[in-house]
Write a structure and sequence with these properties.
It is a single chain. About 35% of the residues lie in helices and about 20% in strands. Strands 5-4-3-6-2-1-7-8 form an 8-stranded mixed sheet. A 6-stranded mixed sheet has the order 15-14-17-16-19-18, sandwiched between helices. With about 650 residues, the chain is α+β, with helices and mostly antiparallel strands. It is built from 20 helices and 22 strands. A hairpin with a 5-residue loop joins strand 4 (about 145-150) and strand 5. The longest helix has 24 residues, at about 25-50. It is elongated. The protein binds adenosine-5'-diphosphate and magnesium ion. Magnesium ion binds near residues 121 and 122.
Length: about 650
């Protein structure tokens, strides 16, 4: 028999195929199984067309068997098989896809879910095989044929015997090399693993004889009437056929066929979580882009969630075959906590099916998912508040970061989903709830930044606002104020920090007069204090906002003191400084002491100014510049 030669270009192409298209050798099994599934689909459609083959879906299967001694892995199907001509054209011509042609011919007739399209997958077998034999008998033919090749050198086609219609692919697995352990592709556990990973949702059963163990019969017998010492039971090995794939993907089922338990079990199994998810989102979309998506919001924050190690992404399937385990483009960063999968037939995959060719459809899916996730979260917020509170504890930080990220690109998407602790409600509230409670004359949405709710409750700067009965949002995460600055407004209301120089509260005429007069009267005192403190502060002022506390710091400029803290705590060399104003409460006894010192002993002013400034720093949660000097100054005061 004469060996037929691949054309020169084909040789190079084959070499390329085998060595550079795929990053993972293991996908050869996915490709061979996908072909088997396609071949069965074709025969199944044929049987539907002819109406007389007597074959139903349940009669079809794919079978794997391993012959370790001969290093052979065989994949058999009872699909449509190939004629001699088809063998020649489909396996002899690289990049020729019989499946694509079939799809094109049958496009309009039925919903066809054939996987093949590039005509290269078959050759991936050579990544792991030194020799490939294809024995096939086409539907409606008498003669079977054998195609054989050991790679780039060419192939032969000869007549052979085969009882039934279908195809056997016999791979002789390569010997191990120093870098590659090809042996593993003969191992039962590895094969099983590859099937569940890539081909779990192939809709025909993938069967394999698997090794099982049981107690030897003879041992059971002897146990009954034994007078001897009971001995260890002996085990024997036997083989039984198992179906390795689960076939029907849960996400393709109807929602009303599925229970919460089905969804939860699938989640825990597939995404390795121990607890049920907080929310399941199952959506089937038909239209320009058709897809099924099954998404989950975890009930707990993954250990590594807020670290660089965490990888966002959804599993991506095309016609039930896994293409990518974590496709990051399907999820915006702000929803990176969502787990789950998307299955679509409409994706244009690249030749290795490891990536997407261009991402128009992917973008369309991602943007619909984004809206869907938001609306589901909003529903949770409105209908299941306690659940949402819990969710927000887990992932609220990510939402707030999402507002700030990328110059606010997702701010609009997220603004209704964020919550802050409310000074008056004593619980987490949304911005829209805040606005709905605003007093008539209240111009701003007020917030205060600090370490904790407890500390913020005692913050001097908030006294006036509380006095007026205004609600204050407590910002306890570093990101909060940055996020809000990006938002700038919510429902036309601007945000205002309780520590900002101007609180935007209209004083009465008398109050204004009084303040002005006092400021004038004490001008020199304040100048002296400012002089003592140098450029640590921009000025000393009488406070409007303080009621019972003696002093506080407020920010004069745009940059708040909290922002200074956050930015300076970052591991960069760039340090910034907010403009700080030292505010003094005129109705506090300390003010009398200051005035007295000014009149009697101006040197004391320097000491007092330092002390008050340091106190304000401490209240603000900032370190004092010189703790020893501060402590000594207090001692001096106590003994004098
Ligand atoms: P693709 O699946 O993208 O078409 P492949 O290289 O995987 O490309 O396969 C090439 C062609 O060989 C298929 O289109 C199909 O016509 C044929 N083929 C491969 N495996 C089988 C099989 N098990 N049964 C019948 N035909 C097959
Ligand atoms: Mg294929």
């Amino acid at each position: 028999m004469a060996k037929k030669q691949f054309k020169a270009e084909s040789k190079r192409l084959l070499d390329l195929m085998i060595n550079s298209i795929y990053t993972h050798k293991e996908i050869f099994l996915r490709e061979i199984i996908s072909n088997a599934s396609d071949a069965i689909d074709k025969l199944y459609y044929q049987s539907l067309k002819e109406n007389n083959t007597g074959l139903g879906r349940e009669d079809f299967y794919i079978k794997l068997s391993v012959d370790k001694d001969n290093r052979q892995l065989t994949i058999s199907d009872n699909g449509i098989g190939m004629t001699k001509e088809e063998l020649e054209s489909n396996l002899g011509t690289i990049a020729k896809s019989g499946s694509l042609a079939f799809k094109n011919e049958n496009e309009s007739k039925e919903e066809i879910d054939i996987i093949g399209q590039f005509g290269v997958g078959f050759y991936s077998a050579f990544m792991v095989s030194s020799n490939v034999v294809v024995i096939t008998k086409a539907y409606g033919e008498e003669q079977a044929y054998k195609w054989e090749s050991n790679g780039a050198e060419g192939y032969t086609i000869t007549e052979c015997e085969k009882d039934s219609v279908g195809t056997d692919i016999i791979l002789t697995i390569k010997e191990n090399t120093e870098d590659e352990k090809y042996d593993e592709f003969l191992q039962e556990y590895r094969i099983k693993g590859l099937i569940t990973r890539y081909s779990d949702y192939i809709r025909y059963p993938i069967k394999m004889m698997v090794e099982k163990h049981r107690v030897k019969e003879s041992d059971k017998e002897s146990e009954k009437d034994s007078t001897e010492e009971p001995k260890q039971p002996e085990y024997e090995t036997y083989y039984e056929e198992d179906t390795l794939n689960s076939m029907v993907p849960i996400w393709r089922k109807n929602k009303n066929e599925l229970t919460d338990e089905d969804y939860n079990n699938f989640y825990k199994e597939k995404f390795y979580d121990f607890v049920d998810p907080a929310k399941v989102i199952h959506t089937n979309v038909e239209g320009v882009t058709t897809y099924n998506a099954l998404l989950y919001i975890p009930a707990k924050t993954p250990m590594n969630y807020y670290t660089k190690e965490y990888e966002k992404g959804l599993q991506l399937y095309s016609s039930g075959v896994l293409i990518m385990d974590k496709c990051p483009d399907l999820l915006p960063d702000c929803f990176s906590f969502v787990r789950g999968l998307v299955d679509s037939q409409d994706l244009s995959l690249n030749i290795s099916r490891e990536m997407l060719q261009h991402d128009r459809q992917l973008k369309a899916i991602a943007s619909r998912l984004e809206k869907k996730i938001k609306s589901e979260l909003l529903e949770m917020l409105n209908v299941k508040r306690e659940k949402y509170d819990e969710f927000f504890k887990n992932f609220g930080l990510q939402l707030k970061f999402g507002i700030y990220d990328k110059f606010g690109a997702k701010a609009d998407l997220l603004k209704d989903l964020i919550m802050f602790y409310s000074s008056s409600e004593k619980k987490m509230v949304t911005l829209s709830e805040y606005v709905s409670r605003m007093k008539e004359e209240q111009k701003y949405i007020y917030y205060a930044c600090g370490e904790s709710v407890d500390k913020l409750d005692k913050q001097p700067q908030t006294e006036l606002l509380k006095d007026k009965g205004y609600e204050i949002l407590y910002f306890t995460d570093d990101i909060d104020e940055f996020a809000i600055r990006i938002l700038n407004k919510f429902e036309e209301k601007e945000f205002k920090s309780a520590s900002s120089g101007d609180l935007g509260i209209e004083e009465s005429k008398e109050e204004k007069e009084e303040l002005k007069k006092q400021a004038e009267d004490n001008k020199e005192l304040f100048e002296l204090m400012k002089e003592a403190l140098g450029d640590k502060i921009s000025k000393v002022e009488l406070s409007q906002r303080l009621k019972s506390h003696p002093v506080c710091l407020t920010s004069g400029g745009d940059l708040s003191i909290e922002m200074e803290k956050v930015i300076n705590s970052m591991p960069t060399d760039e340090k910034i400084k907010a403009e700080k104003v030292l505010e003094i409460n005129a109705s506090h006894p300390i003010f009398e002491a200051l005035k007295k010192a000014f009149d009697e002993d101006k040197d004391k002013i320097k000491v007092y100014a330092e002390l008050l400034y340091n106190q304000a720093l401490l209240i603000e949660g900032m370190p004092v510049d010189d703790p020893v000097a501060f402590s000594n100054a207090i001692c001096d005061l106590m003994v004098s």
